[in-house]
Specification:
- This protein is of the alpha+beta class.
- It has a single domain, classed as Umud Fragment, subunit A (Ribbon).
- It is elongated.
C-alpha cells in the first residue's frame, strides 16, 4: 500500500526558529459596519401636512378645551390686574355634549369668575358692531333677587362679603357712585352710560325693589365695583354666551390702563411687542405668574 510524501521532522528548537523568522501574521481587515440606509428627505407635501396637523390640534385645543385671555381693563383689579394672561377652561361650564361623556360638566354658580361674550355689541372705528369677550364675577343666578345698598350686594336678602382685598377707588362722580352703589333703586334710565335697550327692559325685572334674574340669564359684576361696566349697564348674560372660567394666570406683565385696547394697526402692535421684549424681566409680575385664579 503506497504512502504519501513524508513531512520532515523538526526538533522543538528548529520549530521555534522557524516561527521566529517567519513574517508576522496579519490581522484580518476590519469588517466595515453595515451600511445605514440613507435618510429619506421629507417632501414638501409631507412638510405641509405635518404643519397642518399641528395647527388642527392647536385649533381644537383653543376652540374646545382652553383659550388664552388677556385682562385689558381694571374692572376686576381686586382679583385680576391689567396684563394678566389667563388660561381659560372652556369645558367645565360648557353645555354637556354626548360625544364627550366622561368630561365633568357643571352649571355656573355664585362667585364664579366667568369669561363670556358681551350681550350687546360695541362699535369699532368703522362703526361696525363687535361682540367682545369679557371677564366678570357671577353675582346672580336665575331666580335670584339682587340689590345693592351702600355698595354692599345682597342676594335673596343676604348681604355678601366684597370680593378680593383692598378698597375700591372712588367713582368718577357722585351721581355715578349713587347709581353703582344703590342699584336697582337708581334706574339705568338715569345713567347715560347704560344702554337704551337695558333701560327699557329693566322695569320688567323689578319685584319689591329687587332685580330678579330671569330664567336662562345671569347677572355679572366686576370686582372693582366703581370701575366696571357690567350687568348694571347692559343687563343679563344669556347662558349660551358663557365661554368658560379662568384656571391659571400663566403670565402677568405690567400694562398701562388702555394699552391693550388702544393698539391700532401693525405699528402699534410691533411697538408694544418691542416694549415687552425689552422689559420682560423687569416688568413681569413674577409673584402673580403661574397662580390659580379664584
Amino acid at each position: 500500500m503506497g504512502t504519501g510524501p513524508r513531512l520532515p521532522a523538526y526538533s522543538d528548537k528548529e520549530l521555534r526558529m522557524i516561527r521566529k523568522n517567519s513574517p508576522a501574521e496579519t490581522t484580518p481587515a476590519a469588517v466595515p459596519p453595515p451600511t445605514v440606509e440613507e435618510r429619506v428627505e421629507e417632501t414638501p407635501f409631507e412638510a405641509v401636512a405635518s404643519i397642518c396637523s399641528v395647527l388642527v390640534v392647536g385649533l381644537f385645543i383653543l376652540t374646545f378645551l382652553g383659550q388664552n385671555f388677556v385682562i385689558p381693563s381694571g374692572s376686576m383689579e381686586r382679583t385680576l390686574l391689567i396684563g394678566d394672561h389667563l388660561l381659560v377652561d372652556r369645558i367645565t361650564l360648557a353645555p354637556a355634549a354626548k360625544w364627550m361623556p366622561f368630561v365633568h360638566y357643571r352649571e355656573p354658580k355664585h362667585n364664579d369668575i366667568v369669561v363670556f361674550i358681551k350681550p350687546v355689541p360695541d362699535l369699532d372705528a368703522d362703526g361696525n358692531p363687535q361682540y367682545l369677550f369679557l371677564v366678570k364675577r357671577l353675582i346672580g343666578l336665575p331666580g335670584d333677587h339682587i340689590h345693592l345698598n351702600h355698595g354692599i350686594v345682597s342676594i335673596n336678602g343676604v348681604a355678601q362679603n366684597p370680593p378680593g382685598d383692598g378698597q375700591d377707588s372712588p367713582p368718577s362722580s357722585p351721581s355715578e357712585g349713587q347709581y353703582l352703589d344703590e342699584f336697582p333703586s337708581v334706574a339705568p334710565a338715569t345713567n347715560p352710560s347704560a344702554t337704551e335697550a337695558w333701560a327699557v327692559e329693566f322695569p320688567s325685572h323689578l319685584v319689591d325693589g329687587d332685580l330678579v334674574v330671569p330664567a336662562g340669564k345671569y347677572f355679572m359684576m366686576g370686582d372693582h365695583r366703581h370701575n366696571s361696566l357690567d350687568s348694571r349697564y347692559w343687563g343679563f348674560v344669556p347662558r349660551e354666551n358663557i365661554v368658560g372660567r379662568p384656571l391659571l394666570n400663566y403670565w402677568s406683565f405690567k400694562t398701562p390702563e388702555g394699552q391693550l385696547e388702544s393698539q391700532n394697526g401693525i405699528g402699534g402692535t410691533v411697538a408694544w411687542m418691542g416694549h415687552v421684549a425689552l422689559h420682560f424681566f423687569t416688568d413681569t409680575r413674577w409673584a402673580r405668574t403661574l397662580h390659580r385664579v379664584k
